[in-house]
Design goal:
This protein is of the alpha+beta class and 187 residues long. It has helices spanning 53-64, 116-120, 126-129, 132-143, 154-162, 177-186, and strands spanning 14-28, 34-50, 76-85, 92-99, 109-110, 166-168, 173-175.
Length: 187
């Protein structure tokens, strides 16, 4: 959505943005970003009309964690869904990314009313709670191979361990699943 962290990755390719909604449920994942699943509710968002859709959709699929070759193992699935534009016109069909229900974390929080913007007013996403040095460390650790040793000071180590972002594997540190999501969010 416009004004959100990753909107700038598509902004130059967006021809038009319209407030819209679709049937489903919206969850706030522990990493802080929203994920939509099928359900009996209304999710508020934006309908984007994009330039060069056939090329951009490949980028979007990768960014959203959808593999057309292996959809059942993907983080999300891309489906055509009825979308209601807030300008009162008839609904249209549009591509929507839904989180794979098997990938919904147990500690994900249902967003009442399906309005992510409204829900953000009182909650800061986890990546935005991190200090610059913590963000740099997560980016460095996420970009390293499994054999790289990434030194860390004890203050950063304790904070990231307490937040559930890293795990100590004896001789080296690694990102947890949540840490990997934060890395993806920051990258």
């Amino acid at each position: 959505m416009k004004g959100m962290v990753h909107h700038n990755k598509l902004a130059a390719m967006v021809k038009e943005i319209k407030p819209a909604s679709a049937q489903g449920l919206l969850y706030r994942l522990p990493v802080g970003y929203p994920a939509m699943v099928d359900g009996e509710g209304t999710v508020k968002g934006e309908l984007l009309t994009l330039d060069n859709y056939k090329e951009i959709i490949k980028f979007m699929d990768e960014f959203e964690g959808y593999s057309i070759q292996n959809p059942e193992k993907s983080l999300t699935t891309r489906v055509e869904k009825q979308v209601f534009i807030d300008d009162g016109k008839s609904p249209i069909m549009a591509d929507v990314y839904l989180l794979n229900p098997a990938k919904l974390p147990k500690d994900a929080k249902l967003i009442d009313g399906g309005d992510y913007r409204a829900s953000m007013a009182g909650q800061t996403p986890l990546p935005l709670q991190l200090t610059d040095s913590q963000k740099k460390y997560i980016l460095k650790l996420g970009a390293s191979s499994g054999r790289d040793i990434v030194p860390i000071n004890l203050d950063i180590y304790r904070d990231l361990l307490n937040k559930g972002l890293i795990v100590d594997k004896g001789r080296r540190l690694a990102l947890t699943n949540l840490g990997s999501e934060v890395f993806r969010f920051l990258a």
